[in-house]
Structure formats: structure tokens, C-alpha cells
Amino acid sequence: MENKNPSKKIHPSRVFFKSDGDRINFFNTLKVKFGTWKNFSKIFGIYKSKLERYRYGEHSMPKDFFDEILLEIDSEKRKNIENSVFFKDHGWGRKKAGRITYSRHKRIFEIGRKIASANAKPKYHFDINMPLSPELCELIGAFIGDGFTNRYGGNYIVQFTGHSVLDRKYFSVLTAILKGMSPNCNPLLSKRGNTLRLTINSKEMHLLLTKRFRFPAGLKTYTVQIPDEIVNSGNLNLINRCIRGIFDTDGGVYFDKRKSYKSPYIRIGLQILSRNLIGQIYNYLQMQGINPTLTRKITNLQVNGRENCKKFIETIGFSNRRHLDKIENLNL
To answer: Is 0.85 surpassed by the pTM of this model?
Structure first.
């Protein structure tokens, strides 16, 4: 459930509906999508009482929670919902009073600011211009698959999400990569429902992703692709490590056990809504002798058969234990 310790909360922008009708339509859409409010509460890890305050318009909703919900809504309905809301910074009602208080007691505030600055602990540092490396490219791939970044007031968040059980070991891999870039960084691991989150509160990491690699802040589902800097490097090792990060987070290993096969038929699959991204991956796999197939909607890529999957594992590979455990006894 949600963290109840106020000292550890990050206060994002708040979501307001343009009318009561818009709010009612939004929650009706959620009811149809998730079946029951009990099921919705379980998936998103929210108490019934808090959900009801959102439903009845008693409280505004945090934007990061709103964005998380939108990820589960189909694109057409999502556009209508986004047009029915507007945003305000957290504490917007207190800011005017705060400015008045500051103007009356400016000298006291300045003294306190100097004391706080002198006692502040040094922050960890991410070098925005760090050289491209296999580890950085793999992290970028993981971000493409299951990452999110945004700014909420003065707070900058970079977050990776995964399954609370199946991806726990993989988050240790991501943490090790982050600490390799910034030894003093302290990624925060939290669990809500069946979702595990790895959060880095860092303006520099946010800027590395949004300014250097040009990922959009907020939702990126339909437009994301392998960044130009990695593509233009011409280094297949770096490109493959980025693709590995994508498969670690958004891919899977499957076995077709129908009787028509003498033994379980292995498939490595990837489902992504960005056509540009899936086209990039398809081309790079083909270039290296791996023969993937695409669905008609071009959102699902598969590597089929033992020899094809063996080539994939030798060329791209996995770092996520949930995938490695499935293939380690196959002698590929």
C-alpha cells in the first residue's frame, strides 16, 4: 500500500477534472476496464477510502498515479481522458500565502537558508556526458522497456517498474549498473500490489534521459525508439546491449507444448506499441543472422525455434534471471 511516512513522500502535480461529468466518465471507464473497485485497488495498491475520495471529487489525484492508470487504458480513450483534465502543482493553494510570509520575514528566511546550506549533505552525481558503455546502453534499453521519468515541481524522478517477485533479482542488476555510474547513489526499492518500483531521485539522471537521449518526460509508449546516439555509434555491441535491456523488461521466453511438437517449441517474444522501435529491433536482428517474425499489427516480434533462439541468446542474451532460468537447462 502507499507509504504513510510523510517525510518520504514526493509531492507531484495534482490532476483536476474539467467537470463532474468528466470525472464520472473517467471512473466509469476504469470500472469497465478492471471489473470491480476491489480488483482496481489490488492492482494499484490503493486503499478503498482514498479511492472513494478520488471518485467523488473530494481529493485531487497525484499526476504520477494518474499517469500510471493511463498506461492501462487504450490509446483512443486515453486521448479523451487527457483532454478532460488539467494540472496544478502540489500545494498550489499555499504558495501565495508562502510568498506573503517570506516578504514579511525575509531576513529570518535568509539566515535559515544559509544554515541549511552549510549543513547540507553532498548529493550523489551522475555525469550527463559519461561515455557510451555497454552498461549504460543496457540501462537505456531497460528504460525503454519499463522506465519512466518526469519532473514534479522541484523533484525529478526516474523509475523502473517490474513484477514484485519475478523481477526482484533483475532490479539488483539495474542497481549495480546505477552504482557503477554513481557509487554513492541510493536507488529506492518499493512494492505496491504486484508491482516493484526502483526509483532514482536525480535531476542529472532525468536530464541524461530527456536532454542527451531525448526521451520525453511522462508517457512514451507509442513514440519511443533506440536513441540516435546509440544507433549512430555504429557499434553493434552497444546496440545489442540496448536491445538486451528491452527484452529483459518487455520480452519473454515461451514454450509451445502442443502435441504436434516432439518437444516443447521455444519462442522468444517481444510486444511493443512503438512501430519505429520494433522496426529497429527487427532490422538489427536480421542483420546479425537472426530471423524474427512480426504480427500483422507490427506490435509483436517473435524469434522462433531452437536454432534461431540459440543465435539470439549468443548475440543479444539476457540479464534478467526470470528469462535465464527458463533457458539454462536447454543446452542452447
So the answer is: no
